[in-house]
Write the structure tokens for this entry.
Amino acid sequence: MRQATCIIQKRLTTMKWTTALLSWLAAAVGLHAQLVNPGFENGLQGWQTLCSEGTGISFDTAPYGGGTMSARIRCLGGEPSDCWTQDQVRPMIHQPLTSAQNGSVVHISAWVKAEPDVPGDEQWVGAVLVLGWLNGSGGLQYASGACAYVDFGGGSTEWTLGSLTCTLSGFPTGVTPMLFLGGHAYNNTNGHVLIDNVHIALGGSGTQLSAKAWLDGAFVPAQNLMRDDLRAAGLIPLNEPNSAIFQDGPGGETIQPAVLAVTGNNAIVDWVRVELHLGPYLPGNSLLIAKRNALIQRDGDIVDVDGVSPVTFNTGPGHYHVAVRHRNHLPVMQTNAILLNATATTLDFRAPGLSCFSRPAPYADLPRRTVGTTRTLWSGNVDQFGALPRGIYYTGLGNDRDPILQAIGGVSPTATLTGYHRADVNMDGVVKYTGVNNDRDLILQNIGGVSPTAVRYSQGP
Ligand SMILES: [Ca+2]
Ligand SMILES: [Ca+2]
Ligand SMILES: [Ca+2]
């Protein structure tokens, strides 16, 4: 077995210009764990390479959600000598890992695809990731350990998610940790690796977010507020209900009773879940880095368990996709990863201009509901699991309507039930199947209002 070599070419910028740009960006926006041009939409801008001009990187079509371009790196193709470095590490593209140091936990994800020259050889073609540094003569160097030299996905002609979480160690004093990416072909194969959407986050704590959203079930357009009937009736639990509903953990967030005494625009409507994801190009196929069970106010502010502060996550700075979940709404996730750190960033899921994930056909659907000039999370997802693909169903096995009838006893459709229940779609504290303000009609309305077999597909993670 011999190793093949991938060669790359810096195409759009000179090294000096790239370095100047990085320095300027770092100063301008307080760069932390942020890669420049992580999706190769500007070619190799922001990326550096050890190779000379004229070698083999090109650009190819991107995966769904990856923009229009990906980096396509040649393996085994007439490599110039300066593309070789010590230890036979093949040439790679690289960027500094701003803010990272020994002891830093690093989460990295990227989309990877193998393109073997001979069909069927894809199992031997994959991406390689190195966390290292440039030595005194400008060559690649790396320490041993989990963060050093990693096979990073590929092996398939389909786009797949490569990911790594590790702790940096062995970096000499004074060097800048660098992320290097390239390809690797084994077993006498030739080909390319395609790479896109390289995302990075650092571990730690204290990352903050000020998100805003509307829950459609509680939203009252005439008031431009959500109703807080659950709070007013004393029905909101002091312990987060989400971990049991979403069947994950650890959760355990609690609130003090005084938080639920606040009235007016900042009154608490309910619990929600906010999640930080890395590297998705399809909903349901991303890497969950951190989550927090939080509260949502009548005016849409999503706040931490004190009822007023931005939500704080148990992770460090990074380039995240933010998702919001609620126990009887469809989740939503924004498309363009944003930089989050210890200074709260605002993200408004009510804004029409915010791009949110949608699946490719045949499960493409509006990720949010349009209400006048604003956007809400779709209500009526009473059963968060149920029928597949996940979504809001009115009929069939695992639909979201039957749980309403079951909640009120399953016999008399005119019965009602007071309390904190997922079947209470409009969040007024009463589960109701027929009559004025019932919870069933909203489901029919949200699947389109015409055909009861229509489905509103979930576009969330
Ligand atoms: Ca791209
Ligand atoms: Ca459902
Ligand atoms: Ca209700």
About this structure: The helical segments are 15-29, 229-232, 242-246, 402-407, 441-446.
